[in-house]
Amino acid sequence: MTMKCVFIVLDGIGDRSYKEFMHQTPLQAARTPTLDRLATLGSNGLYHAGCLGQALPSENAHFAIFGYDEAEFPGRGPLEALGAGIDIGTEDVAILAHIASLREKRKALILAYGKPPATPQESKDLIAAVETFRAGDIAIRFSQTEGLFGILTMKGKVSPYITDTNPMREGTALSKILPWAAHSRDIVAANTAEALTAYLRRAYRTLAEHPINKVRKERNLPLLNGIVTQRAGQLKKIPSFRERYGLKGLSVASGLVYHGLSAFIGLDFTPVSDSADAASDIAERMALAERALDRYDFIHIHTKRPDEAAHKKDPAAKKSIIEDLDRGIAPMVDRFLKNPEVLLVITADHSTPSAGPLVHSGEAVPLTIC
């Protein structure tokens, strides 16, 4: 008998306890008859993709879950570039970037609005205005992925070992771009930081003077006048998932980072979209996985919905989403359980607190294997 693994990741389902749930987490408080039943049928435990207390981003957690070492991780920038189909060479650096609303205070730039609203045409025109830049032998290009968001690619003698500018919190000053401490004497990292700084300064001046912002100022709308950057990286040569584990794999997910991660480690990818109905979405993904079982040994099914609900800092909303997902999982569960070749695994990549200032937190997450 050949075993197949169906691996369901409920992104960010781990959490902390809240008074409104009698000091339970949203998962504990949620009505989840399907997950409860699976827990009675399977082996259960707690899992952390890194070290307890370490708050991992989704891409790092997934990379570890798929069996790869931290030293092999290329950075989120290259993963999203691969997912978006952006041309990126092994010597290039890719960085997440988006246009934000900035204001000046005491010779510093402050993040006023991290994700200001913009029309599709405004996004297109503003990105076009700052699309290309050159500093010496370093060429920079802004490629749009969605709305005001995109990827900066840097070509030339460049290094990924530079710090972010995005403070991730409104009202906070943007950080200066510096080489990582471990690369403080690396001239390539220093030149990369200088080139990116020059581009961001030029972009700030260009966007501030753009006609779109003159109109927005007259209408008392947040200005779209600067670019913030984070998660620089560079592609690395690693063994594919099949070379390393002898398994042909498939990922069924939405989001550029999962498409890019699949491309990087050699999983096939079936893109799906997110609707307002979390139950239908997860049911559709499980049905796609079942139809693919005859062609794949390992199938990754992903939903971002618990993580997104937690980022709204509303424990009740997260509890509701968990209940929706439980309902969506129910119709397909027995079809997997009745197949003696299927190992069904349900877990999360990390914990996402539904209250407080943290983006992610370092608690372990539940794991069930049936």
Describe the secondary-structure layout.
Elements: E1 4-10, H1 26-29, H2 33-41, E2 43-47, H3 58-65, H4 76-84, E3 93-105, E4 108-113, H5 120-129, E5 132-135, E6 138-146, E7 149-155, H6 187-208, H7 211-218, E8 226-233, H8 241-245, E9 249-253, H9 256-265, E10 268-271, H10 278-292, E11 298-303, H11 305-311, H12 315-337, E12 342-347, E13 365-369
Parallel strand pairs: 1-11, 1-12, 9-10, 9-11
Antiparallel strand pairs: 2-13, 3-4, 3-7, 3-8, 5-6, 6-7, 12-13
Helix pairs in contact: 4-9, 10-12, 11-12
How would you explain this protein's 3D organization?
With 370 residues, the chain is α/β, with parallel strands linked by helices. It has helices spanning 26-29, 33-41, 58-65, 76-84, 120-129, 187-208, 211-218, 241-245, 256-265, 278-292, 305-311, 315-337, and strands at 4-10, 43-47, 93-105, 108-113, 132-135, 138-146, 149-155, 226-233, 249-253, 268-271, 298-303, 342-347, 365-369. The strands form two sheets. The chain has a seven-stranded mixed beta sheet with strand order 2-13-12-1-11-9-10, sandwiched between helices. Strands 3, 4, 5, 6, 7 and 8 form a six-stranded antiparallel beta sheet that branches. It is globular, with a radius of gyration of 22 Å.
